[in-house]
Design goal:
It is built from six helices and three strands, in the order H-H-H-H-H-E-E-H-E. Helix 3 crosses helix 4. It starts with 6 loop residues before the first helix and ends with a strand. The protein has three domains: about 50 residues, no CATH class; about 40 residues, no CATH class; about 100 residues, no CATH class. Helix 6 links the parallel strand 2 and strand 3. It is mainly alpha-helical. A three-stranded mixed sheet has the order 1-2-3.
Length: about 200
Amino acid sequence: MAVIRTAEEYRLQLQGLLPSGPAWDPELVPEVARVLGGVAVEFSRLDARAVDLLNEMDPSSVSELVPDWESVMGLPDDCLGPNPAFEDRRLAVRRRLVEVGGQSRSYFIEIAISQGYPGATITELRAPRMGRSRFGAAHFGTWNAQFMWTLNTGSRQKKGRRFGVSYWGERFGTNPGNALECLIRRPAPAHTLVHINYD
């Protein structure tokens, strides 16, 4: 982690770099101390902004450069709608960079969790087959049932927009994850039919 120097630390460093002699003595020439103090404040501000820039290079901590990341990655995603919330845009940047995709249950459950459904589960239906079917067993259906599966969202996590977390222009009282159906159906296997069961 980068260390940000304070203005006082910069002032002491600059004072130590001054040449010797009465013309540079802060006690004899107070203007020198004022100039060093002003320069030290600016150096400290630049130091802090450099650390901010380093944090912006990592998509897990990006906030100011979200539009730049989006232009590089072909975002914002169409699933997020015409006016996506800032937090959804930042999440899309993170996902686009680190996501490897997949068609497993855990992959689709992870998508639902990222959209605000921590209790998501998947129910896969089975077609009746000799040797596998049992009398009275649940999830027993027609032959087409083998291509159907259900995402059970479970209860919704309460993390709507609020002061201190939201950004200017975002609506209050809405929960993230309105794009769940699009984000689930787009990578779903083409031969399957997905049902989403909102609890």
